[in-house]
Amino acid sequence: MKIKEKDIKQFLEKAGWANLPRTLLAADASFRRYERLNKENSSAILMLAPPKKESTTPFIAIDKYLIGHGFSAPAIKAMDTETGLLLLEDLGDKLLKKLMKENTDREVEYYTLATELLVTLQQKKPSQDMPLMGDKTHKLAFYDNDLLMSEADLFTNWYLGKGLGISDGALNEELNKTWESLFKKLDKPSVLTLRDYHAENIMILLDRKHIKKIGLLDFQDAVIGHRAYDLVSLLQDARRVVSPELEKATIDKFFGLMEQRGLPINRDKFLEEYNILGAQRNAKIIGIFTRLWKRDKKKTYAKMIPHVWDMLERNLKHPTLKPLKNLLDEAVAKELRQQPLKGL
Fold first, then answer.
1. Which of 19, 116, 237, 279 is the least buried, fewest Cβ under 10 Å from its Cβ?
2. CATH of the domain at 34
3. Residues 285 and 200 both lie in one domain
4. Which pLDDT tens digit goes with each residue over 94-128?
5. pLDDT at res. 340
């Protein structure tokens, strides 16, 4: 359900941004969309999140937390949570993905900064109840095994079932058992996890210093999760190819930074978790991209699936994931993984 135009106009008039041209910036995989407003020498971003489909509460709470801890998230200029409207600080157009298309010379620099931001973020210990407004709070979910499993099911139900037409109860049961066995190897969730920390949600703010150069977007789905998850999001990016060499070098940087700050971690254990979570995330994304194609008629996402398969296969090389690799090798032929889904 769309937000009524009269409600948008009333909101902008009250906020002091009435009667200005609005330029559509993006409509993401959710029901949210974003528009830019220009006013003399300033600009702002209008977020439209239909209340029956999206809540603005998580964004507001997490935005407040991030800004309060010194990170570059967009300041909120005005809000109407009942209508689903937020007026946000405009962080510009320099998305990491866009910059890397234009010039890769600074790739290592920016990925190092993005990694240092994660280490800094993980030094904080967020409460499950995040302050909102007054005495109201937003309760963060835990990225527990049940949530991980429900996401892994997207691969089974959408990609295997609706995408490839594979309906095999015995296979599905074995996949569930294998995922459950893998998730038991993970440490308990303990850090704020943004979940979609990748090149299309990272803004480069050239006028700011150090990790404040990293502008954060699209963090409303944040949870209390695992230390490796956001690093997987950054380095196994469904929307951009990150070379295995850069991935390895950045992981090494992560280990070095953790040690420098007195938070050393077991490398073998971390890499095991990194690949388990990478496999889960990439399988989930394959399922979501299939759903976006089949249900929402967004064909572009189906064409991105072969790249995500490449990353999933990278994860499956880890010895711990051999049982999952065997099941997927039996279910989905190698050549099929590199082809668009049927019907494109």
1. 19
2. 3.30.200.20
3. yes
4. 999 999 988 889 999 999 999 999 999 999 988 89
5. 64
